[in-house]
Amino acid sequence: MQAIEGWRNHARDEPAAAETMQADADATYGTAAAEGQRGDRMREFGFEQLGLVLVVASLVAMLSRRIGLPYTAGLVLAGMALALFPAGAELPLSRELIFNVFLPPLIFEAALQLKWDRFRQQMPLTVVLAFLGVAVSAAVVAIGMRVGLGWSWLGAAFFGVLIAATDPVSVIAAFKEMRAEPRLRIVVESESLLNDGVAAVGFALLAGVAAGTPLSAGAVALSFGWTVLGGLIFGAATAAVILLIAGRTEDHLVEITLTTVAAWGSFLVAEHFHASGVFSALIAGLIVGNIGWMGSISDTGREHVVGFWEYAAFLANSCLFILIGSHEAHQPIALLTAALGLAIVLTLIGRAAAIYPLAFLFRATTLRLPATYQHVLVWGGLRGAVGLALALAVPGTVAERADIIVLTFGVVAFSIFVQGLTMPPLIRRWRLTRPAGEPDEH
Questions:
Q1: Distance from chain centroid for Cα 364
Q2: Which end of the chain, N or C, is less surrounded by CB atoms within 10 Å?
Q3: From residue 374, how far is each of 325, 352, 356 by CA, in Å?
């Protein structure tokens, strides 16, 4: 409690710093003028900027493999360098860009590579970790922000929900690089894919509260059920239609095009009907990657489809993390040192409070998680693009919106540079990597 009082006193003793932070954040995110400026920058982002991002991403990929630096951390550093360079590009970042452009191919490609049998075997564990885990973690963070910084319950709840879910973009990229053991990788990736959808559902419910929509237990259950089940239905329906069409051709270019429609179509249709685009793209990828290989996608086309989606994921990852880096460079994090420290500590405590007790429930089953796996789930629960997208979408009526955005950028930076850089040596130390030469299957 003394530490919490210290944070409160720090905030009271430095009103000028707090006002400066608020003004900086409002100038960046919170005013109509800023919205117009973001729109101008979006329009300025053309083929020249895209070409620059691709060249930088290629150089970072080669350099990262040479020096052993995690690729995502290298991309963020490159984005920061581009932003600080006098002639650097002004790169846009928004909730719409992350959700509508980058997230669908990344979710779809990850699901495309998942083996249904292994995914199904771990599903009881990953569903519990994702659904209950997000609730526990969000509650810990929200209570901590309310007590520690005096935030409103609504602002604290928004931050707790959006920061509770690990980011599948960061997690999948990191664990693919680290060549983690098959079971560890599928548990970590599956839980990340699922808890991301759960966080989006919780965020939507809070957005309704912020808009003044009265909520009852029945309304919450109905909204939650539709968001999850609706996403699964739209994803399955989209994949079924696409595979039905794909079964009538052996042209690999047409097959690639149809899977592209499945990825973005499933996501955007679900979002349009207020269902979960993440769950929709996830089930669409699982169906295409498991049922589609049985005949709908030709044997010759399969290799082309997989290769295309590996490149699409590389491209989306590269652009996304460079954009994150370019915006990290301009965040007034130094003005929020105490608050940011509290947010980071609460995020880690919340993750630990979710993983260790829930994993204990499976200790006597075949789904038992070794202690090292649990440590990896806690420390390797990276935050990234999804949290940023949700933070940028916090309604303007929430008093702490500017603080939420800045703190989310700070937690993401800590996640990428501290947790992300220390995970590879920890994975190796605990001997959780696949032997050299073993195929990358999960």
A1: 31
A2: N
A3: 29, 9, 7
